[in-house]
Structure formats: structure tokens, C-alpha cells
Amino acid sequence: MTEQPWADWPEILDAIPIARYRCGTCGGTGLSENDTCADCHGTGIDNHGA
């Protein structure tokens, strides 16, 4: 049986710090440049699927 190269991906991806579901503009704080983030409208949650 051939080893599947993606078999270790879950462990590898868990080791990489990725801010899942956080707004890429404000980093999840809801603020950008001391004002409400225009990208997520202050929620801190990525609402664009980016």
C-alpha cells in the first residue's frame, strides 16, 4: 500500500498558528486605527471568507 502524502497534514496544520475566523484587517480586535474596523464592522470576525 502506498503512503498518502497528506496523512500527516492535520498534525502539521495544528502546529501552525493560524488565526481562524478572525478579521484579517484588525486581527480580531474589532478596532482598526483606534476606530471601528471597516472590514468586519467591529465584530472581529472574518465575515468575507477570506
From TrEMBL:
Q: Which SUPFAM superfamilies match?
A: DnaJ/Hsp40 cysteine-rich domain (SSF57938)
Q: In which domain of life is the source organism classified?
A: Bacteria
What protein does this entry describe?
Answer: Small CPxCG-related zinc finger protein
